[in-house]
């Protein structure tokens, strides 16, 4: 039997013809495939050879700029000067681990925890979002004495063994164990908005019962606060509230994954979970935290950290090292000094409004939705039937790539365009994107 291919929207197909690649990129691709292992993936039908980045732009080997409307990891922009300088200065002074007393990690921890509700008053640092999710799950399971988890049906939470077990978006060959139950995410396009909160809470209740029938007790509910991998499902605000109440009544923990919505991405504040009027027991941070350097975190309350810390302990040699802390501190400086959260709100609102105007009469666009600099465009075969059209989404992603604009796609059916640029993405970048998107849409054929 031929194994199923791993699902990944917008991945490069190694069996495809390579004649369109520039000679330097084709040669690099050949070398890459020879020495890098098979699990690696590339974006786009025509992979991009990136040699330099600046702000919201990536430059290829020929010096051409590409508008980056996808990468949230360099939150304050590619090659940010303030981050560069902070890292270089710290690397020239000291880089060691957290088993020595150093001011840097304590200063940053005090600053970071001040951005959270008072009950989330402590932090444990890791190196990646996957590690942070893994650690948060271990802490939860030790506290509750249970290992049953609820996650959304197309969630992505990481690649360690534990994180992959709660990441169904990794595809059909990534097994989901019996102690993990998948629940359907809200669907803004197809569900009655007035009933979304109630319906999701009912699905969570059913999931807890499924765990019980399998002989597994509930540890917690792990949810990406903006449901990025499920197609960016943000509204109505507060839809998560009743589900969290259900989880708490059953003795479980609510773990908020803020890797993608965190650090001002949604333009409504520092984090995504306040949109739902909920109080997480633990919060996971990652990628944008250090503008690409390896730093992540678990935020929580002493009541969850203390027993685990006493009985099990945790140490990670590189977690919270002074160099990565310097990068993370510089990221906070940039967000605050440049008012990037209100900037994300303003530019994102313009982008959302203009996309809705451009697509108002286009039957292939089921919905344009989003908040701040996180916007989704859902492709359908027609608005009446609302059947997902992954082919149209893939076409637009690659047509925009040909026009030197970088986006991707997400959602259970791979039919949702995902726009998630660095926070320094400005009005001139938005106008360039809108021009190229309109042109790409004009050459998209009718559903076949």
Automatic annotation (TrEMBL):
This is Aspartate aminotransferase family protein. One of its GO terms (molecular function) is transaminase activity. It holds the Pfam family Aminotran_3. Belongs to the class-III pyridoxal-phosphate-dependent aminotransferase family. Transmembrane segments: none annotated. Residues 1-20 are annotated as: Disordered. It comes from Geodermatophilus maliterrae. InterPro entries: Aminotrans_3, Aminotrans_3_PPA_site, PyrdxlP-dep_Trfase, PyrdxlP-dep_Trfase_major, PyrdxlP-dep_Trfase_small. Keywords: Aminotransferase, Pyridoxal phosphate, Transferase.
